[in-house]
Amino acid sequence: MKTIQSLLDEYGESHQNRTNKIIHWICVPLIFFSITGLLYSVSLGVVISNIPLTLAHIALLLVLLYYMMLSPTLSIGMLVFTLCCLTVCNALTMIGARLWMVSLWIFVLAWIGQFIGHHIEGKKPSFLKDVQFLLIGPAWLMSFVFRRLGMSV
Hints:
Shape: globular
Oligomer: single chain
Low-confidence stretches: none
Largest sheet: 2 strands, antiparallel
Number of strands: 2
Distance between the termini: 16 Å
């Protein structure tokens, strides 16, 4: 398995253009949220402590374990972001929003943004080379937050 730093460096190779980076700061978190929302829309029919268990809970647990194997420190930041996504999904569900529809629109629009960014960059998205880069994108952004706070990943 590659180290977190080698994965972040490799991901960063196709994310050098300033405009593409800005687009990624907007679209990558939105894509992560939208996938969370789509998975949150699939109830597993179990309630734990008044929280309905969804496919998002299972999938995100596995994603967080993946992040933990790569970087225990970075996984803490990803846990916080994941909990924020789950909280927003729950809030949208509680107010009666069609979470799956909202998530689908966000997903489509954010991916359009991503492909525009990569067109501007002149390089293909990293995940076309290796699908695990779909999970490295959010970690790549979180690594910038950690560095800004003076923390290592």
